[in-house]
Amino acid sequence: MDSLTQAVLGASVTVAVMGRRTSFGKAALIGAIAGTLPDLDVVIDHGDDLLNMVRHRAESHSLFFLALLSPLLGWLTNWWLQRKAPPGTPGHAGRWTLAWLLVLITHVGIDAMTSYGTQFFQPFTDHAYAVGSMFIIDPLYTVPLIVGLVWSGLRARKGKAWGAPNAWALVLSCVYLLWSVAAQQHVRTVAHKSLEAQDIHNAQLWVYASPFNTVLWRVLAVTPTHSHEGFYSLLDQDPHIPLTATERGQAYLERWADVPHVQRMLRFTQGPVRMEVVDGRVLLTDLRMGQEPHYSFVFDLGTPEELDAGKVAQVRRLKATLRADFEGQSLWQRLKGKPAPAGGE
């Protein structure tokens, strides 16, 4: 998820765990820092843009490493706050450890709800888990957490009982996550029927939340030769999902299957990629994030001659050109269930 959401979630969790054992402001600030800590791995350069992508959300999001780190961070936090405390003031190292652990776990958990991929079982496996039921930015998830946190903060300043607004916001955020998964499974059922109706067989199916909501969903079905894309709103009256087919470059994927960068991308995405040669350059595209023909992650691997010779130069990511319309319709129009023009294969 985005940094604001992670900071707010971290602050909310820490405030809930610490209660009145420390001030509201200290708990919220430390929680916000804890909530953004795992994402600092973006400053690490692994050698090229593709490696930076597949190594993001790896060791820094490992439940094993975070569990080992939490007691140290809890002890350091308690030590720092106790330095100037009056003698005899009880410490709360155990509570701070619990707060750090829960914040780091919730950070990893909410990241796994997006389509990017989170390797939270490192170092035992580099499998990237991605539910895809949440977009990376979703105001309906973040705003209630902000409201609950601010409301509790205002009550704390007035000396009133302040725990309830923050606690209810956390409960509401969890309910929203469950809703997203339920909605995704419903769309998956509809998508399976649409695949059968359009004679698309032996396809891997993914269903992803579209930008900023959990009402409009992107359906991606991948066969060995093509990717099939369509959109379905929960407000659509027609359960049929028109799907548009695009070639995946099967011949290129087979030709350069032994290239390490191609293998890394396939392992990280678990399948939905495209390979093509454009203007003499070999492009490798992650089909999970974005929509046809604009994607967030497109990598230039070099020339065909370089790949044939096993010489992959510095891989660079092309500038993303994302689009906010759906076959000529705005996100809001399509979300409301306005029928889209019929697609084709």
UniProtKB/TrEMBL annotation:
Keyword Transmembrane helix included in the entry's annotation: yes
One Pfam family linked to the record: YdjM
Top-level taxonomic group: Bacteria
Residue intervals passing through the bilayer: 63-81, 93-110, 130-154, 161-179
Keyword Cytoplasm: no
Name of the protein this chain belongs to: Metal-dependent hydrolase
InterPro entries in UniProt: Transcription_regulator, YdjM-like
PANTHER family from the UniProt entry: HYPOTHETICAL MEMBRANE SPANNING PROTEIN, MEMBRANE-BOUND METAL-DEPENDENT HYDROLASE
Single Gene Ontology MF annotation: hydrolase activity
Keyword tags: Hydrolase, Membrane, Transmembrane, Transmembrane helix
